[in-house]
Amino acid sequence: MNKRALWIAVSVAAMVGDASAQQYVYPANGQSQQQQQSDEASCYSWAVQQSGFDPAKPPPQQAAAQPPTTATGTTPGAGARGAVRGAIVGGALGGDAGTGAAVGAVAARGQSRRQNAAAAQQGQQQQQAATQQQNASFGKARAACLEGKGYTVK
């Protein structure tokens, strides 16, 4: 499930990134194709310098700092803490403290997995948003340069 969600998120980000990077350049002053290629290369370099971002070399996806987890994806000790709470509740209600401990441990592990998955997803979304913002900044810088050289950019 996690791998599928990650794959979908990366695919969507790639499509959005490609769509926002698409710019149409028209030589408004009758520049030759050779001149346009030279100007576009020059403006690409300038936009990288101005924005600090190169769409051809995006930063590698960094794993968000995640809390340590067990092989099952839970935070270490989550089951033990849940078992203690469950035993207390089970004993206080006059029921079986052992059953309460087992139920509490299972519930705590499930909650821990959900929280860890949500934190990982939030980190990925923040990273994608940052990359999209950098890509937009690059596009604006490139367009400004090309417009300054007599091109119409849309």
TrEMBL record:
Alphabetical UniProt keywords: Signal
Annotated stretches, region: Disordered: 30-82, 105-139
Leader sequence segment: 1-21
Compositionally biased region (Low complexity): 62-82, 105-137
Protein name, per record: YMGG-like Gly-zipper domain-containing protein
Organism: Candidatus Propionivibrio aalborgensis
